[in-house]
Design brief:
Distance between the termini: 23 Å
Strand order of the largest sheet: 1-2
Helix content: 40-55%
Number of helices: 2
Shape: globular
Order of helices and strands: EEHH
Number of domains: 2
Length: 79
Amino acid sequence: MRDDGRRIERHFRFRNFQEALGFVRDVGNLAETEAHHPWGYATISLRTKKIKGLHENDFIVASKIDRIFDGLDGPPDRQ
């Protein structure tokens, strides 16, 4: 956990994608319930676990993720 006086940050690890996705949905629902939306950034890390590195498919998915992001209306900061 990190608390630098301006934000609280924690890295979470999951056994698989579905577990991580469920967690993100639950946190989103909590944020809506609490009317406190701590979002603004999303970090996506791609790698192929089987080969412990990058595979061509990682680059294909990264490109598709970029297209999804480009389709959003008005993101304030693209990094």
